[in-house]
């Protein structure tokens, strides 16, 4: 964002003169006014945003700290894309812009002094640019850096990872509750051997969904069989591989709860490759309710997250901190079971 100070320097006038051009133009000579207005147009200068930056010593920019390394698949996940649209829309409606702060390995190689491996340097960089606040998306290895952000006093909102500090909070979905509801639904259909394909280790939502799976079994009066718990990484290939492992068991499951829709689609493909019918031979439930869930055949029963609402809630929490000194309470968004064709309505044999 261009500031009034930059316009002033290019015009050879004071910041006060730039301010008068846009607020009290009659007090500035015609020649000076025309020169300032011409430079402002060329630079796409916004006097309102600049005034806010000067008065608060911050810009209208909110930094998004997110590991976008092309060697990691996280940035391609459809859930995150929908979430970011909600976040951007909510911030834009309040006059703020979202600035991506790359934290990939490539960026760290180019700028070794500014990376999540050196969070203090990263915090200093955000202060130099007078960022209004930060939105943090965890790649699974950023815990130390996020702690440094939370203790810096800069307004921070983390997505799907617990964060607390003088001006820090977090937003997450009811991952455990949603998973438990999915398992109870399968048990109510008569299934007794219910498996799960989990998300990656070290990922907070994945851990919560596994906890919910176990809780759902307990609430249905069913034992937990570790033989029916296999690991995944939220992506389709791991769902395919995990389902093949489960089907190779001596007593394979009659139903599976996959901790993401992407893995659930992989499980559907593995079942089809094994000659099984879904849901007649195997019931499948996912998590997220991304667009593909309603497009696959059979359509996927899933636990829906409020994806645009997730971004809106994160923006709301950040805006609250920008207007007040303290941090708001963490936000827990509800989930909803969306029943489609991949479960069927008949009891398991």
Automatic annotation (TrEMBL):
Name the UniProt record assigns to this protein: LacI family transcriptional regulator
- As recorded in Swiss-Prot or TrEMBL, the protein's gene is named lacI
Q: What keywords sit in the KW lines?
A: DNA-binding, Transcription, Transcription regulation
Q: Which InterPro entries match?
A: HTH_LacI, LacI/GalR-like_sensor, Lambda_DNA-bd_dom_sf, Peripla_BP_I
Q: Which residues form the HTH lacI-type domain?
A: 2-56
Query: Do the record's keywords include Transcription?
Result: yes
Q: Which SMART domains match?
A: HTH_LACI
Report the source organism.
Answer: Amycolatopsis bullii
